[in-house]
Structure formats: C-alpha cells, structure tokens
Specification:
about 260 residues; alpha/beta; FAD/NAD(P)-binding domain; 8-stranded mixed beta sheet; binds ligand 48F
C-alpha cells in the first residue's frame, strides 16, 4: 500500500518559520510603515503598493479590519457617501443605493480590502504592536515593534525596530503613534502643538474633516482615519465609512508625491 509522502511536523515548522522570517527580514527597511489595519490603513497600503512603494501594515490584533467588521452596533452594514463609491468599486466591494446613501456589507468590505492589499504586494504583519517611533535629526524614521502577546502578558521583553521613510498613524480613535511621538518630540504640527482630542458625534462634519486632517503631523509622520480627527479636534462619525476610505487614499497620495 502506498501511503504517499509522510507528513513531517518539523518540516511544517521549518517552512512556516523560514517563510515568515524571510518576509519580516525583507520588511526591515520600508518606504512606509502603516500602524493599524483598520479601513484607513488598509486603503492606504493598497494605493501605496500600487504606486510601487514598499509598504507594510503592523496590526496589533489577529485580524485586520479594525472597527469595520461590526458595522453599526453589530448590524453588519456600512454606509458611504457618493464621493467614496469609486473606492468601493476599486476594491470590488458590492454596494447598493438606498435613498441618497450607499450601503455595503461590512464583512465583505473588510475581506475585500484585506484581499486587495495582499494582492497589491503590501505586507500585513498581524499580532504585532507598535510601541514607539524612531527619531533621527527631527524626523520620524521608523517604528519600534513587539509581539502583542508580549504586551498582553506584560513580559519584560525588548522590542525590535523597522526603519521607514514615512510612518502612517492609522490606529483609530486612540491616535497611539501621535501620542507616543508627541511625548518624545514635544510639539506636533497642530494648532496647539498638542493632540487636540476627538469631539462628539457629527457625521457630516467628521466625514469632510477626516480627509482635510489627513496630513503630516511631524516630519515623516502622517495621520489618517479616525486618528486624524482625534489629533485635530474633529468629531467622530459612527458607521459611515467613506471618509475613512478617502482618508487612506489621501495619505497614500500625499506620501507617493514625496517618494518620487
Ligand atoms: O479603529 P480602526 O478601524 O481605525 P480607522 O481606520 O477606522 C475607524 C473606524 O473603524 C471607526 C469609525 C468610522 O466611522 O469611526 O472607528 O481610523 O482601526 C485601527 C486599527 O489599529 C490597530 C487596532 O487594533 C485596529 O485594528 N492598532 C491600534 N493601535 C495599534 C494598532 C498599535 N499601537 N500597533 C498596531 N496596531
């Protein structure tokens, strides 16, 4: 009886570790390190990779998608305005018009965003948290990373570093990277020099402002998505996601102009 090739556990281990480490080593020097794989970070990654930038997302959780999975209060639908429909189409996300709004399935949306990011050549590292930034001559030059499991366990384990020409803070409401940068550099490029803090829900204003607020807040550090509104005292918006998508695209465009 031919049992075929024997499955070897150590071979499985070797191919997993060798291949994953190869990707990690190949990502030590990036054009762009994106912190956070929510909708804004995913969209930014795809357009940056399409523009030939070497880009990776570092996502704290096991899954990318951030606050998009749950739609509105776990009803798995998201709303976008007409100005972001083109992005849904560019990612192959189905939608339908309902009144003057456009609606899509939140689970399909995350799945297709993530799938297109991978196809574009951008890398996604999940289970990795960014805990600090690197700074040289008044410029952010990379991120300091550790396993999220180490963070959760509270283990005293030193982190590792990734260099990048640009960093995008796409960490959502907490604007974690801007917070850590502000602590280290003192002043960010905001009206008060500080993180201004998010305001209460106002979808219309927030949708518009999130694109305007997508910008460089310190040399080498861009902010996108809900983090941009948290940094610039703009309101939150709830489960309307066009602004998130447009913000990610804007961050990619601004950085691609600089990479030329
Ligand atoms: O929160 P999140 O989805 O950010 P976003 O792209 O989108 C915001 C919307 O989901 C929603 C909204 C829309 O109307 O208001 O809130 O701005 O995704 C942020 C991701 O960043 C990860 C976090 O786990 C989440 O998946 N993250 C946060 N801090 C870190 C991080 C960190 N220090 N290192 C790595 N990942």
């Amino acid at each position: 009886m031919n049992l075929g090739k024997m499955i070897s556990e150590t071979k499985i281990t070797r191919v997993i570790v060798e291949n994953a480490v190869k990707d990690f080593l190949d990502s030590l020097e990036l054009d762009v390190a994106i912190v956070g794989g929510g909708p804004s970070g995913l969209v930014a990654a795809r357009y940056l990779a399409d523009g030939k930038a070497k880009v990776a997302i570092f996502e704290r959780k096991l899954s990318v998608g951030g606050g998009m999975w749950g739609g509105g209060m776990l009803f798995p639908r998201i709303v976008v305005e007409e100005n972001a429909v083109q992005i849904l189409e560019e990612f192959g996300i189905k939608y339908k018009k309902d009144g003057d709004q456009f609606i899509a399935n939140s689970i399909e949306s995350v799945a297709k965003l993530a799938s297109m990011v991978i196809d574009s050549g951008a890398r996604i590292f999940n289970g990795i948290s960014v805990e600090d930034v690197m700074i040289r001559r008044d410029k952010i030059t990379g991120v300091v990373v550790n396993w999220t499991a180490v963070e959760i366990a509270g283990l005293h384990v030193d982190p590792l570093a990734i260099s990048s020409k640009f960093v995008i803070d796409a960490t959502g409401h907490d604007a974690e990277i801007c917070k850590v940068a502000q602590k280290k550099v003192g002043k960010l490029n905001t009206p008060s020099g500080q993180i201004e803090g998010e305001r209460s829900m106002w979808a219309e204003k927030s949708e518009r402002l999130v694109v305007e607020n997508t910008k460089e807040v310190y040399p080498g550090l861009f902010v996108a998505g809900m983090a941009a509104n948290a940094v610039f005292a703009a309101p939150r918006m709830g489960p309307i996601f066009g602004g998130m998508l447009l913000s990610g695209k804007r961050a990619a465009e601004l950085i691609l102009e600089r990479l030329i």
